[in-house]
Amino acid sequence: MTSPREEGFAQPGEWAPHAACWLAWPSHEELWKEALGPVQGAFVAFARAIADPGPDGAPRGERLEVLAPTPVRAAEARERLAGLGARVHEIPFGDIWMRDIAPIFVTSPSGEVAASSFVFNGWGGKYDLPGDAEVSMRVAATSGLRTFRDELVLEGGSVEPDGEGTLLTTRQCLLNPNRNPGLPQADLERRLRDGLGAEVFLWLGDGLINDHTDGHVDTVARFVSPGVAVCMEPSGGGDPNAAALKEIVRDLSSMRDAKGRRLEVFTVPSPGVVTDPEGELMAASYVNFYVANTTVTVPVYGAPNDEPALARIERLFPGRRVVGVPARELLLGGGAFHCISQQQPSGGTRG
């Protein structure tokens, strides 16, 4: 079977037009416990921002494709998302982290969209939940798009494309032996080149403390347009991630993309110390935002830097409305809005 790259496919930047966003309705009481209600509320707010209903009530953003594990949960999702144009699919899943368990969608110069499906191993075997490993191929089949299958272990949140051949990632995650043991970096890059159409790989070091994903790049650095990246700066002397954040700023500022451009790097403040009910530090990030067709949804945590971060991100996305949505309860599960979403670019299928 040919690879996506051999067929001319590559992963576009998130700011490129989307046909849809794939999500999974929060359903598992045994995982979320008393947080399930607030998490569902945050999900509905996020879905509303993506669909972006206009003054007439009609969605003007992008289509919502929502997984639900049972008929009961599907009915619940349809009721809670009424008026947003959501299409609900009864597909079982372990939990809602669609960035990592869904396929990565790629596009060709002719405008064809395809699904590039990788292996999911529970973030290195830490969280093995029934159904998660099958979601990628089930979503690909439901989408009706041409599908490429790759046996490489890869999560979508571990790679960040600029849409012009550059892929940003972290050594902590992609070179972790709990993903693809024994696979040298050069071979990993070759596989990613084939699967996602990347040409140049930019390697950062470590992610945030207590990140369940072993340092996914989408919690520490993002592209906002070709040649332009955003990351976080420490929120003060007491920021527990200060050393890693400073290193990321320094590394990004010295990097060049696939077009030979030195990256233009912007920073937003870190949320600083955000803890769970037991007082444990959580991997809170403002750059775990989702760029939809008309909006950018940014997680906020009731922290002092919420408003300054929103203001800075707003300047990076002229023409899109920036929406801050509370995400502290969602973060109890290990991530925020970028982690629970996977965009499907606009385009078509092979004729």
How is this structure best described in words?
It is a single chain. This protein is of the alpha/beta class and 351 residues long. It has one domain: L-arginine/glycine Amidinotransferase, Chain A, CATH 3.75.10. Helix content is 26%, strand content 24%. Strand 2 (63-68), helix 3 and strand 3 form a beta-alpha-beta unit. It is globular. The two termini are 19 Å apart. The model has no long low-confidence stretch (mean pLDDT 96).
Spatial gap, N to C terminus:
19 Å
Low-confidence spans: pLDDT under 50, at least 5 residues? none
Shape: globular
Radius of gyration: 19 Å
How many beta-strand runs?
16
- Percent of sequence in beta strands: 15-25%
Biggest sheet features: 4 strands, mixed
How many DSSP H or I helices?
Answer: 11
Q: Label the structural class.
A: alpha/beta
At the fold tier of CATH, the topology name is L-arginine/glycine Amidinotransferase, Chain A
The CATH superfamily title: L-arginine/glycine Amidinotransferase, Chain A
User: What is the top-level CATH class?
Assistant: Alpha Beta
Query: What count of domains describes the coordinates?
Result: 1
CATH 2nd-level architecture: 5-stranded Propeller
Helical residue percent band:
25-40%
Task: Kindly report the spatial arrangement of strands forming the biggest sheet.
Answer: 3-2-1-16
| Helix/strand order | EHHEHEHEEHHEEEHHEEEHEEEHEHE
Mean pLDDT rating: 96
